[in-house]
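[SOLVED] Predicted holo structure with magnesium ion

Edit: marking solved, answer below. Original request kept for reference. I posted the sequence and ligand SMILES and asked for the 3D complex as structure tokens.
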Amino acid sequence: MRGRFLSFEGGEGAGKTTQIARLAARLRAEGETVIATREPGGTPGAETIRDLLVKGETDRWNGKTEALLMNAARADHVARLILPALQAGQWVISDRFAHSTLAYQGVARGMDLEELMALHNIATDGLWPARTILLDLPVPDGLARAKGRGGEDARFEGEAIAFHEKVRAGFLALAKQDACMTVIDAAQDAGRVAADIWRVVEPMLRPLP
Ligand SMILES: Nc1ncnc2c1ncn2[C@@H]1O[C@H](COP(=O)(O)OP(=O)(O)OP(=O)(O)O)[C@@H](O)[C@H]1O
Ligand SMILES: [Mg+2]
């Protein structure tokens, strides 16, 4: 059932939202039904929690409160959107999911990774993506791209460069230990990034065993 659940991860401005739109369009052209969603958020209740997390002062919450809010939002997102869609045989592509919590609240804010994984498993009944695409990009490039994009959801973008470097290193360390993660060079032009992603996702079009 989790065979059609993908997540996209990476720092600010890495190209997650851009690439999810391209991938969803490509899958729809293949005749698939695709739910493109995001975290924190994705359902009305989780979007309400999102506002608490992504707006306001950068020091508004500590890592523990962030982790609990993220997982409260995720529990609603999984129960009310992701699981029903997977059970209906649809594709679900989430813009950020579990690995963002591990990289931001874990590696960058210092929460214990084992505890965060246990919390994730409580929130989701143990749901992990079949494949996680990590878009990797040097931090200054990502922040420059994110600035160009604008928007008010900029609480995390306000963190120091050192914070974002910890996030990037955290994602790469997670990918080294997780066979379900694929690292893609997000510094390439968007068409090349999309081609690299398609090489990973196309084999998942085959019927599930
Ligand atoms: N491969 C690329 N090369 C150059 N610019 C890109 C590329 N991919 C996306 N961009 C541009 O960079 C900006 C950020 O991209 P996007 O919003 O997709 O990133 P994101 O990972 O979703 O960021 P955030 O984490 O802040 O939501 C956008 O203006 C987008 O058009
Ligand atoms: Mg985005």
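OP edit: The chain has eight helices and five strands. Thanks to everyone who chimed in.
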